Amino acid sequence: MEIILLDDRPNEERPFQIRQGHHTARNVVEGDPSRTDNFSMRIAYVDSSFGSNRHHHNFDQWRYVIDGEADYDNSGKMAAGTLGYFPEGAYYAENGGGPRTIAIVQFGGPSGWGYFKPHQLQESFDALSRTGVFEKGIYKRNPGVPGKPMQDSYEAMWEHKFQREAVYPEPQYSTPIIMNTANYPWVPVEGTPGVDEKALGVFTHCKIRASRYKLEPGAQFTATGRGIYLVLSGTGMVGDGKYGELTTLYLGNGEKAALHADTVTEVLLMGLPDSELILKQATPPAARERERVWPDN
Known about the structure:
Elements: E1 2-4, E2 12-13, E3 23-30, E4 39-46, E5 52-55, E6 60-67, E7 69-71, E8 77-79, E9 82-86, E10 92-94, E11 100-107, H1 122-128, E12 132-135, E13 138-141, E14 150-152, H2 153-162, E15 177-180, E16 187-188, E17 195-203, E18 208-215, E19 220-224, E20 227-233, E21 236-238, E22 241-243, E23 248-251, E24 256-261, E25 265-271
Antiparallel strand pairs: 1-23, 2-3, 3-4, 4-11, 5-10, 6-9, 6-11, 7-8, 9-15, 12-13, 13-14, 16-17, 17-18, 18-25, 19-24, 20-23, 20-25, 21-22, 21-24
Helix pairs in contact: 1-2
């Protein structure tokens, strides 16, 4: 279990930019890069110039708009209070929008391909920068350089890192799933006075959950199950520490934590896959190198 106050994390420039435009981020909490259930969570501050080409990944994502609006092209616009589940293998594009603040959780998905943060691919970025250019989310190789003339930036770095072609899982969902959480009803949590829930969904065979919870002053709620719990508003105690707006709680498999509300509190659960249900056979022998602990550059 980890409890993180947002002010304890500095707002930093990205180590390198592979997408169009600019943003900074507070890196809040992350997992173990040697494991297929690795994850990271950050709060990103994005300006109106930021966007991405149509692409997909071999990992899963949650995106929750805290403030502003994001435009995800054919997947729809996401206003404040909107949660998106971006499944591994599903294509999407980000066509800008206004300045916005977004909570982003990226994690190894059900297929077992794991997750590597972009800055863990710094060596690849540096090497590829000598043989081509990164431009608006696309890596363009110099004439005569072996490989695809143009390629998604993250994919190019991933392939350079592992020296093999990236393989994408067949998506369990063909498109991102956008949830307007304001349109879900509050339902009392049985046996827990003063606590209501908006059950947003359970996704894939790994039982990845999403919910919002509301605690009245004096109410106690016990969070259970692997995931990121983000305090959207309110104050109180979790364990022996205080929580406030945008405090983050990470729970692993089998862990639990009690929240005691001093004021009306709303909490968003962005669940992570049950580690025991992530596919093992999906990882070919050539990918075993990923189980090394890579330097977190």
